[in-house]
Design the sequence.
């Protein structure tokens, strides 16, 4: 048996307890505010502070480009590739919009973070049977002037390669005339890989692309639109993929 490296011990005995405290305190404040009508800016402020604390404590440095391409004052659907659980704090802190996410329904039962998601307007869906309720929830979020973060791959990438984009959110965007913004994340999987209990400091790049209007498109255009957005994102992360999949656990030649 190999002795786990320093960052494994740091994750288990420092980061997990510390982030747990952030989550408990800010989740409680966010949920508490929801009972007095505070489901908007205060709750989002708690989420953004939570995101910043996680990135700062872990030692994640983020370089952002392209934000000037996206005018303020209207809601968007930000569509991003998905490499790590650190993608969500990165997007929440560095995208200056009132954001909500689509998350697994099971997360709603988790203490603090799940309660926050359920009480503050995030979209919780059963991935195996999303049904019409998911579309209703998304429409409600956008009508309130909030933007949405979606990972259309449906799962995190193990090696950085961008998977196929599911068309459901694209059909909704077309039917509701929602504006889509492609987003590309590079390097976040090196901070914390899928199925691995170790977090390392790292550098992440966040690139935002020109908004894509859906007015004039029909339901039959959803597949082509999904492929177009995937092409933009995949081109931005090209060259960042692993040459070979890293073994399980903490062992990887590319990581600290």
Sequence:
């Amino acid at each position: 048996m190999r002795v786990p490296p320093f960052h494994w011990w740091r994750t288990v005995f420092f980061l997990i307890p510390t982030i747990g405290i952030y989550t408990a305190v800010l989740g409680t404040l966010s949920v508490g505010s929801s009972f007095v009508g505070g489901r908007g800016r205060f709750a989002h402020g708690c989420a953004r502070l939570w995101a910043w604390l996680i990135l700062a404590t872990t030692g994640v440095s983020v370089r952002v480009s392209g934000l000037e391409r996206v005018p303020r004052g209207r809601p968007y659907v930000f569509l991003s590739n998905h490499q790590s659980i650190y993608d969500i704090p990165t997007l929440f802190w560095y995208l200056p919009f009132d954001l909500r996410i689509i998350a697994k329904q099971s997360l709603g039962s988790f203490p603090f973070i799940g309660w926050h998601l359920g009480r503050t307007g995030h979209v919780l869906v059963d991935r195996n049977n999303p049904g019409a309720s998911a579309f209703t929830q998304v429409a409600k979020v956008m009508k309130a002037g909030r933007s949405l973060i979606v990972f259309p791959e449906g799962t995190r990438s193990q090696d950085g390669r961008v998977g196929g984009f599911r068309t459901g959110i694209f059909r909704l965007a077309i039917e509701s005339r929602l504006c889509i913004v492609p987003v590309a994340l590079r390097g976040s999987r090196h901070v914390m890989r899928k199925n691995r209990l170790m977090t390392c400091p790292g550098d992440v790049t966040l690139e935002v692309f020109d908004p894509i209007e859906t007015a004039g498109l029909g339901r039959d255009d959803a597949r082509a639109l999904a492929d177009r957005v995937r092409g933009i994102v995949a081109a931005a992360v090209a060259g960042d993929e692993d040459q070979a999949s890293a073994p399980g656990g903490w062992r990887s030649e590319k990581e600290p």
